[in-house]
Design brief:
single chain, alpha+beta, 4 helices, 6 strands, 32% strand, elongated
Amino acid sequence: MTAADLQARLRAGLPANVPVLPPRDYLLPAEWQEEGADGDLVENGGRGLHAYLRQQAPQGYVQLQHGDGLSSNGVLDVGMVQISVTASTHEDAQALAQHVRRLIGSQPVRPTLQAFQSAQTFEQDDHTRIVLTFETRAIGV
C-alpha cells in the first residue's frame, strides 16, 4: 500500500476538516504563517505549529510518513509505515489516533494489509503528537 493509498483511505474516513498531509508536506505545519480571510498573510501574524493548529486544523491533523524498509521471505513482502497524529490537546490527539487506527489497522473481523504495531505519545505544552506504526504486508513478487 502506497502513501497515496493510505492518504485516500484516511481522507475518505476522517472528518473533512482534519487535514491529511502526504510525506512531502512534513514541514507545512511548522512553516505555517497565519492567513487572513482573503488568503493573504497577516502582517505580524502567528507562525508555526500553534498557528497551523488554530487556523487549519483545530481538531488536529494526520501526517503520513514514508515507509521504513522492506523485507521479503519469498512469499510475503513486509514493511513498516508510520502515521503521526497531532492535536492541540492530548484528548483530541488520542481520539484522532484511535480513529486512524480503526481505519488503517487490521482487526480479526476486518483484516487489512496493515497491522497495528505500536504507538508513541509525545506531549508538549501546546500540542500532543502520537506516532502510530503499522506493519504492511503484500504478496511477494
